[in-house]
Amino acid sequence: MRTGYIAQMHTEFSRPVKAGHIHGAPQSYELAADETTRATLAERFGLPGIAVLTGAFTLSHHRGGIIAADLRMKARVTQLCVITLEPFEAEIEERVALHFVPAEKLADEEELPPESLEGPDEIPYQDDVIDLGEALAEQLALALDPYPRKPGAVLPGEATDDGANPFAALTSKFGKKV
Protein backbone atom coordinates (compact mmCIF):
# COMPACT_ATOMS: atom_id res chain seq x y z
CA MET A 1 0.00 0.00 0.00
CA ARG A 2 1.34 3.39 -0.97
CA THR A 3 0.79 6.42 1.18
CA GLY A 4 0.95 9.90 -0.25
CA TYR A 5 3.60 12.18 1.15
CA ILE A 6 6.17 14.66 0.05
CA ALA A 7 9.53 14.46 1.73
CA GLN A 8 11.17 17.65 2.89
CA MET A 9 13.34 18.83 0.00
CA HIS A 10 16.98 19.60 0.56
CA THR A 11 17.98 23.00 -0.71
CA GLU A 12 21.71 22.65 -1.39
CA PHE A 13 21.11 22.67 -5.13
CA SER A 14 17.63 24.09 -5.58
CA ARG A 15 16.85 25.17 -9.14
CA PRO A 16 13.07 25.73 -9.23
CA VAL A 17 11.15 25.91 -12.49
CA LYS A 18 7.46 26.76 -12.85
CA ALA A 19 5.73 23.73 -14.32
CA GLY A 20 3.02 25.96 -15.80
CA HIS A 21 5.62 27.67 -18.01
CA ILE A 22 6.45 24.40 -19.75
CA HIS A 23 4.11 23.97 -22.69
CA GLY A 24 4.34 23.82 -26.46
CA ALA A 25 7.84 22.97 -27.63
CA PRO A 26 10.24 21.13 -25.29
CA GLN A 27 12.42 23.37 -23.14
CA SER A 28 16.06 22.81 -22.25
CA TYR A 29 17.84 23.64 -19.01
CA GLU A 30 21.56 23.26 -18.27
CA LEU A 31 22.70 22.97 -14.65
CA ALA A 32 26.19 22.94 -13.18
CA ALA A 33 26.87 22.76 -9.46
CA ASP A 34 29.35 25.30 -8.12
CA GLU A 35 32.17 24.42 -5.70
CA THR A 36 30.18 25.19 -2.54
CA THR A 37 27.19 23.17 -3.72
CA ARG A 38 29.38 20.23 -4.71
CA ALA A 39 31.05 20.25 -1.26
CA THR A 40 27.65 20.30 0.48
CA LEU A 41 26.32 17.49 -1.72
CA ALA A 42 29.49 15.46 -1.10
CA GLU A 43 28.89 15.76 2.63
CA ARG A 44 25.22 14.81 2.18
CA PHE A 45 26.13 11.66 0.22
CA GLY A 46 29.14 10.70 2.38
CA LEU A 47 31.69 11.27 -0.38
CA PRO A 48 35.19 12.71 0.00
CA GLY A 49 34.44 15.04 -2.90
CA ILE A 50 32.55 15.88 -6.07
CA ALA A 51 34.71 17.54 -8.73
CA VAL A 52 32.03 17.90 -11.44
CA LEU A 53 28.24 17.72 -11.47
CA THR A 54 26.30 18.83 -14.53
CA GLY A 55 22.91 18.01 -15.91
CA ALA A 56 21.10 18.82 -19.13
CA PHE A 57 17.30 18.57 -18.87
CA THR A 58 14.84 18.54 -21.76
CA LEU A 59 11.33 19.12 -20.41
CA SER A 60 8.01 18.64 -22.16
CA HIS A 61 4.45 18.98 -20.92
CA HIS A 62 2.12 15.95 -20.87
CA ARG A 63 -1.51 15.65 -19.85
CA GLY A 64 -2.61 16.15 -16.28
CA GLY A 65 0.25 18.44 -15.29
CA ILE A 66 2.90 15.76 -15.83
CA ILE A 67 6.24 17.12 -16.98
CA ALA A 68 8.39 14.57 -18.80
CA ALA A 69 12.13 15.08 -18.42
CA ASP A 70 15.09 13.62 -20.24
CA LEU A 71 18.22 14.11 -18.14
CA ARG A 72 21.81 13.73 -19.32
CA MET A 73 23.99 13.76 -16.20
CA LYS A 74 27.78 13.89 -15.90
CA ALA A 75 29.71 13.72 -12.67
CA ARG A 76 33.19 13.05 -11.38
CA VAL A 77 33.18 11.97 -7.75
CA THR A 78 35.76 10.78 -5.25
CA GLN A 79 34.74 7.59 -3.47
CA LEU A 80 36.42 5.36 -0.91
CA CYS A 81 37.28 1.84 -2.03
CA VAL A 82 35.50 -0.77 0.11
CA ILE A 83 38.58 -3.01 -0.04
CA THR A 84 41.55 -0.68 0.42
CA LEU A 85 39.74 2.34 1.93
CA GLU A 86 41.75 4.50 -0.48
CA PRO A 87 40.05 7.39 -2.28
CA PHE A 88 39.68 7.15 -6.05
CA GLU A 89 37.86 9.10 -8.75
CA ALA A 90 34.86 7.68 -10.57
CA GLU A 91 33.23 9.06 -13.70
CA ILE A 92 29.44 8.89 -13.97
CA GLU A 93 27.52 9.48 -17.19
CA GLU A 94 23.85 8.59 -17.32
CA ARG A 95 20.77 9.34 -19.31
CA VAL A 96 17.56 9.12 -17.30
CA ALA A 97 13.86 9.58 -18.07
CA LEU A 98 11.79 11.17 -15.29
CA HIS A 99 8.22 12.31 -14.79
CA PHE A 100 7.43 15.24 -12.51
CA VAL A 101 3.89 14.55 -11.30
CA PRO A 102 1.58 16.84 -9.28
CA ALA A 103 1.71 15.63 -5.66
CA GLU A 104 -2.07 15.30 -5.42
CA LYS A 105 -2.07 12.77 -8.28
CA LEU A 106 0.47 10.56 -6.51
CA ALA A 107 -1.32 10.91 -3.17
CA ASP A 108 -4.53 9.51 -4.70
CA GLU A 109 -2.94 6.16 -5.61
CA GLU A 110 -3.56 3.51 -2.94
CA GLU A 111 -1.62 0.63 -4.51
CA LEU A 112 1.06 0.52 -7.13
CA PRO A 113 -0.20 -1.13 -10.29
CA PRO A 114 2.39 -3.55 -11.73
CA GLU A 115 2.84 -1.44 -14.88
CA SER A 116 3.89 1.58 -12.78
CA LEU A 117 7.07 -0.18 -11.72
CA GLU A 118 8.40 0.11 -15.24
CA GLY A 119 9.07 3.33 -17.04
CA PRO A 120 10.28 6.69 -15.76
CA ASP A 121 10.65 7.47 -12.07
CA GLU A 122 7.89 9.73 -10.80
CA ILE A 123 8.91 12.73 -8.72
CA PRO A 124 6.13 14.63 -6.95
CA TYR A 125 5.92 18.41 -7.12
CA GLN A 126 3.58 20.91 -5.57
CA ASP A 127 2.63 24.57 -5.93
CA ASP A 128 3.41 24.37 -9.68
CA VAL A 129 7.19 24.23 -8.97
CA ILE A 130 9.59 21.47 -9.98
CA ASP A 131 13.12 21.48 -8.61
CA LEU A 132 15.61 20.44 -11.28
CA GLY A 133 18.61 20.85 -8.98
CA GLU A 134 17.24 18.47 -6.36
CA ALA A 135 16.23 16.00 -9.09
CA LEU A 136 19.82 16.07 -10.41
CA ALA A 137 21.21 15.55 -6.89
CA GLU A 138 18.86 12.60 -6.31
CA GLN A 139 19.85 11.00 -9.61
CA LEU A 140 23.52 11.34 -8.66
CA ALA A 141 22.79 9.57 -5.36
CA LEU A 142 21.06 6.74 -7.25
CA ALA A 143 23.96 6.43 -9.71
CA LEU A 144 26.63 6.04 -7.03
CA ASP A 145 28.08 2.56 -6.61
CA PRO A 146 27.09 1.41 -3.11
CA TYR A 147 30.25 -0.77 -2.92
CA PRO A 148 32.86 1.17 -4.86
CA ARG A 149 36.08 -0.62 -5.77
CA LYS A 150 39.21 1.13 -6.87
CA PRO A 151 40.32 -0.28 -10.22
CA GLY A 152 42.66 -3.22 -9.59
CA ALA A 153 41.70 -3.65 -5.92
CA VAL A 154 41.33 -7.28 -4.90
CA LEU A 155 40.42 -8.98 -1.66
CA PRO A 156 43.32 -10.57 0.23
CA GLY A 157 43.50 -14.37 -0.05
CA GLU A 158 42.30 -14.99 3.51
CA ALA A 159 39.18 -12.88 2.89
CA THR A 160 37.93 -14.93 -0.05
CA ASP A 161 35.13 -17.41 0.37
CA ASP A 162 36.73 -20.37 -1.45
CA GLY A 163 36.30 -22.77 1.48
CA ALA A 164 32.58 -21.99 1.78
CA ASN A 165 31.70 -24.28 -1.14
CA PRO A 166 29.54 -27.10 0.27
CA PHE A 167 31.35 -29.60 -1.96
CA ALA A 168 34.85 -28.55 -0.84
CA ALA A 169 34.99 -31.46 1.65
CA LEU A 170 34.36 -33.91 -1.20
CA THR A 171 37.37 -32.58 -3.09
CA SER A 172 39.82 -34.12 -0.64
CA LYS A 173 37.89 -37.38 -0.57
CA PHE A 174 37.68 -37.88 -4.33
CA GLY A 175 40.59 -35.71 -5.44
CA LYS A 176 38.49 -33.88 -8.00
CA LYS A 177 38.18 -30.16 -8.46
CA VAL A 178 34.73 -28.79 -7.76
Write the layout of secondary structure elements.
Elements: E1 16-18, E2 27-32, H1 35-45, E3 49-61, E4 67-80, E5 87-102, H2 103-107, E6 121-125, E7 129-131, H3 132-143, H4 168-174
Parallel strand pairs: 5-6
Antiparallel strand pairs: 1-7, 2-3, 3-4, 4-5
How many strands in all? 7
Report strand order across the widest sheet: 2-3-4-5-6
The amount of beta strand, in percent, is 25-35%
Structural class: alpha+beta
Distance between the termini: 46 Å
> In percent, how helical is the residue content?
10-25%
Residue ranges: pLDDT <50 for 5 or more in a row?
1-7
Give the count of structural domains. 1
What is the H/E string?
Answer: EEHEEEHEEHH
Q: How would the global form be characterised?
A: extended
Number of helices: 4
Biggest sheet record:
5 strands, mixed
Can you describe this structure?
By secondary structure, the chain is of the alpha+beta class. The chain has one domain (16-174). It has helices at 35-45, 103-107, 132-143, 168-174, and strands spanning 16-18, 27-32, 49-61, 67-80, 87-102, 121-125, 129-131. Strands 2-3-4-5-6 form a five-stranded mixed sheet. A hairpin with a 6-residue loop joins β4 (67-80) and β5 (87-102). The chain starts with 15 loop residues before the first strand and ends with a helix. The relative contact order is 0.20. Residues 1-7 have low confidence and may be disordered.
